[in-house]
Amino acid sequence: MSPANLRTFLELVRFSHTIFALPFAIIATLLAFHMGADGATPAAGWWTWSRPWIGILLCMASARTAAMAFNRLVDRSIDAANPRTASRHLPRGDLRVGEVLMLVVVSAGVFVGGTLLFLPNWLPLVLSGPVLAWLLGYSYAKRFTALAHLWLGVALGMAPLAAWIAIRGSVVMRDPADLFPAAILGLAVTVWVAGFDIIYACQDADFDAAHGLWSIPARLGVGRALRLSGLLHGVTLLLLALLPLVVPELGTIYWAALAVIAGLLIWEHSLVRADDLSRVNDAFFTANAIFGIVLLLAIAADIWV
Asked: Rounded to two decimals, what is the model's pTM?
């Protein structure tokens, strides 16, 4: 594959947007190791220590690539009809259907194969099928439910849960309460993603309504959709405020980061109004990219300082 073709495929799946979910998988992995997972230190041997990290990164990247490529494949006719998305790679003819389908198949195979790195913990391998089905199923959600935004939220919210189970699967099977830190983080990610996806979907409210697509802005109107997004982001902050209850090591640095995150969310919502969506991209990309990085750095600092 030439560098130009590789770049086209990376642009197709917006690979750089992996930053939205990856920090939360890393956070869950850090916390899982912090609570005493086997192989938590380099003293256990380079491969024993690095294998789960390689597995987390490989599975995250490949699962997201499969889901995004499948979305572009399924939505190609919708994208072609929408002036905002008509210049995407498939409608424009930069890539063929067969090429994108192959990317989906290969990425899905890498995802399932990557779960073998967690053996003898077999839970990731067993759960890889249902997880992949949920990720790919999102591409059809907006055709029959206005909860498609929440569906996407769950897809990203599974990242910390999946990482936790991959590292501490045997502990979770003995004591399901061990999953609480990852569950709280996963719920926070779920409502956060649903909230910012509603903001992003406001751009297509008229198109979605005209074509029978079930987005919240199309169903409720842009004004009410933005208010609902704000409510979901308020719930996000509440859930993140609960995390120190199950991870007592989180202290001053974490709370300072949470204040920064609250400021980011307020700023995000200040950029968009029902009568002015010109700054949606600033709200969507800038604020949300910083969100996960701030949380990751704060949790890592509180654990290690």
From this structure: 0.92
